[in-house]
Amino acid sequence: MNSFCDPMIDLNDIAVTYGAEDQTKSALLSIRLSIESGEWIAIVGSNGCGKSTLAKVIAGLIRPSSGHMICHAESSPAVQLVFQNPETQIVRETVYEDICFGLENFGIPQERIELRAMDALRRVGLDGRKYDRTATLSGGQKQLLNIAGCLALNPSVYVFDESTSMLDPLSRQSVLHVVRELHRQGRTIVWITQLLDELAWCDRVIGMEEGTIVFDGSKQSFFYGDEASWDRSAPNPCDRLGFVPPFTVQTARVLLASGYALRPLPVSPDELSKAVGAL
């Protein structure tokens, strides 16, 4: 896990309201959140809780109704967003043309475009499909192409808004592999999901409900509550938000309730295996 000391993004009393006059609806309410450089935060919550709105605020696609955001990134663009639907961001007919589109829009010199485009395609495993029509790609390959488009621009922060939710398991693992590599390279990741097994790789969990942050802490605290006084019968943030924990966590909870001291508290299958093996 990376160590953090420098803020990358500060959100100060962010509110987003839709509509006009007496027909307004609040999507975000007084959000205060600091994201450190190199951190992987996961944002979870039920549909309509404000996760996607928060993603768009961080990516600069929505202007807050009140409050302000400070981004300390030196790169330009500072933030890039990968949407849920792989079709959303594809605008050109071929793989190579599509990845060049963003580079051209950001004024990258022509002599550097091919190098950056091909490097990004190589990193997601699509360099051999440079001239393929985007319509022939699978859903997972389309999402990898979207990520490659972001990679080519080299932002400091990557925001993924449920980017694996429409993918099959194999494609989902391909996307997660690329994102984990980005994190190892020190990039800041904002990962929005309802697939709680994906929290295994994050550094910190943000739980949202009705436009507000109701939890901000470690993934272990999210799934198990207070580690120092863990009680199977006590509510924890995961249960309170109405989520079913991953099978790994369910198994670990049963073992803990039976008197087995699992340390550290496992979230991934590998962590469970190691914790059990150490008993």
UniProtKB/TrEMBL annotation:
Record's protein name: Vitamin B12 import ATP-binding protein BtuD
Lineage: Bacteria, Bacillati, Bacillota, Bacilli, Bacillales
Family stated for the protein in its record: Belongs to the ABC transporter superfamily.
Stored CDD domains: ABC_cobalt_CbiO_domain1
Gene expressing this chain: btuD_5
Main localization of the protein described in the UniProt heading: membrane
Gene source species: Paenibacillus allorhizosphaerae
Record keywords, A-Z: ATP-binding, Cell membrane, Membrane, Nucleotide-binding, Translocase, Transport
Location of this chain's protein in the cell: Cell membrane
InterPro entries noted in UniProt: AAA+_ATPase, ABC_transporter-like_ATP-bd, ABC_transporter-like_CS, ABC_transpr_CbiO/EcfA_su, ECF_ABC_transporter_ATP-bd
Highest taxon, organism lineage: Bacteria
GO-annotated molecular function: ATP binding
